[in-house]
Amino acid sequence: xxxxxKLVICALCLVFILGLFSGCADGDASATATPAPDGNATGxxxxxxxxxxxxxxxxxLKNAVKEGETYRYFTVSTTDSNDPFASELxxxxxxxxxxxxxxxxxxxxxxxxxxQGGGDWATAFAQAAFAGNPLADIFNAGGxxxxxxxxxxxxxxxxxxxxxxxxSDYADFSDPDWFDLSSQEITTFDGALYFSVPNTEGFDxxxxxxxxxxxxxxxxxxxxxxxxxxEMYNNGTWTWDKLEEIAVACTDLxxxxxxxxxxxxxxxxxxxTASNDAAILSQVEDPDTGKSYYQFTGxxxxxxxxxxxxxxxxxxxxxxxxxxxxxxxxxxxxKVALMTTYVNRANKMVAEGNYPEYGIIMVxxxxxxxxxxxxxxxFVPYCVFKGTSNPAGAVQVLSEYCVPxxxxxxxxxxxxxxxxxxxxxxxxxxxxxxxxxKSKTVTQPFIVYWNAPTFDVDGSQLCLANLYLSYNExxxxxxxxxxxxxxxxxxVLNNTLKDAQNVLA
Length: 505
Prior knowledge:
Helix content is about 35%, strand content about 15%. It is α/β, with parallel strands linked by helices.
């Protein structure tokens, strides 16, 4: 295998997110709609001329889209409503998106109108919807934070969103070839799906999964070869204990070299929790109302065991803990032996150059885990506002139009994944690990409630982010323990979470 990483083909994370749904981003604004099957016909009416640019539609589904309608779609990826694909850097994706828009309009005889937002667009669109005058029918909500911050809650009664699952006669969001079912579990409340989460395309599937990078040169200097690392990983002995051993061996404080970087927002602690079969938030049923909601479980025995391990490493001074200093900076400087972070840090390093040769393996297993697991803490949710002229039609358009180019199981998608994974890997073993990520990644619900809602404790406003960012030093020096601290805030935190989620009632 040739040393060094191959030339990067993938774009960076932002481009991943923006370009992923280029089928939902605008097309040639000059395109015009032409007549299509009657709006009351079933999906099979147009089956004879199924476009290669459109998601196949089950003949069992009814058609709610009516000829002559206009569907207003907002996406954060467009900056120019007259040329909404201008930001799409990949020519292939741009062309596909234009063709999809044109063919979809032609199929149904409708118009896809792209709505441009500016300034604080998230708040503006939410306020308009709460006022009963939505500015768009179909909405790209940006990211998981916005689910709480804008579109459900804000202490306003009721929901401004159509329950997508109420329109199962017209739309199917259950196909894993097209939708991220793990993330959709998080966007389902009290049995109703409010946000669809389309799959990402090709390598984008794992770009925001968490993995462990290792600096080959640093580890080699301390007796750990590539072969050693991949053998440990493959035979299941890549564990917390082994990570500790390597981190301690590779730490050289005289030369400011650390065993591991805790990552942006303390990624490392998130990963330790998940890798020990624990979760920061878990869904439970409220015995009083019978409703399901997410409550804090970061104080479970498995989670506290993860904190104990984190503290143990901290006491040995093996962690670089400046969480706002992006980990790849220190890693590229040769100052970090291990870093646990997003896969797409590889894209960033290769694009910017001047990086050490690295390997990629998954996060090590904790004592309570049976297998490796990777967490994903970001996704792009889509919704339909209440108050649209044809909600069933809008939900149908969302399910058919706002999807990636290719089905997850397609040869095209697999080839795209392989090409991009190879382009950001320094060895074949890393490529194989990245392939495994597709079946070992789960979306964590805590990201929806990371910085809101806030709750008051002795005059201080706290949130989940505070709990995992602001008390590390106190935990490590022993002036405070995670168990005692979490016990002191758990009741008010859970009541705050329950109140927020019960707004959906």
